[in-house]
Design goal:
It is a single chain. The chain has about 160 residues and is mainly alpha-helical. The chain contains seven helices and three strands. The protein has helices spanning about 5-10, 15-40, 45-55, 65-70, 80-90, 110-135, 135-150; strands spanning about 65, 95, 105-110. β2 and β3 (about 105-110) form a beta hairpin. It starts with a helix and ends with a helix.
């Protein structure tokens, strides 16, 4: 076990099985992230922007307040407001004030944002297919369970 990792990072041994597993997880995550990032860059998006658009599509047409968007992001972004500002300048999202509390703004995905995601979907689906082609459904469930155990830890 660990031969691919040893070759990838040019390391012969690991401090412990936990250290090897942690490095494997980081390398695997970086690999998947790089594939998605490449697709996003082709559409002039960052992964964080793509994540926000997907979150808002899931709540279309209602949208979310900024704090709810931030709490749903895969990677916590330090400044969600600026991220939303950039998406708004590109007319991919819009912000509206609520009638109940004029201080609260709701961010919603626009038709232009939905259209961009529709163009991205087949490319992201192809990445999903490449990912799942190498793992059985059982392996995928095991991987998900193990990942949840890892990020469920209070490290």
């Amino acid at each position: 076990m660990g031969e691919i990792l040893k070759e990838r990072i040019k390391q012969r041994q690991f401090k412990s099985p936990a250290h090897e597993a942690m490095l494997n997880l980081m390398v695997a995550a970086a690999h998947v992230r790089q594939m998605v990032e490449h697709t996003c860059v082709e559409h002039d998006l960052t992964q964080a922007q793509y994540n926000v658009l997907r979150i808002l599509r899931g709540r279309h047409p209602d949208g979310y307040p900024r704090g709810d968007i931030a709490s749903r992001m895969v990677d916590r972004a330090p400044d969600v407001t600026r991220l939303i500002d950039r998406l708004e300048r590109r007319e991919l999202v819009e912000r509206v004030r609520t009638d109940e509390d004029r201080r609260l703004s709701i961010t919603r995905i626009t038709r232009k944002g939905l259209a961009l995601l529709a163009r991205l979907d087949p490319e992201i689906d192809a990445i999903d297919a490449r990912f799942s082609a190498h793992l059985s459904p059982r392996d995928l469930k095991t991987l998900s369970r193990l990942c949840e155990q890892v990020y469920g830890l209070d490290l």
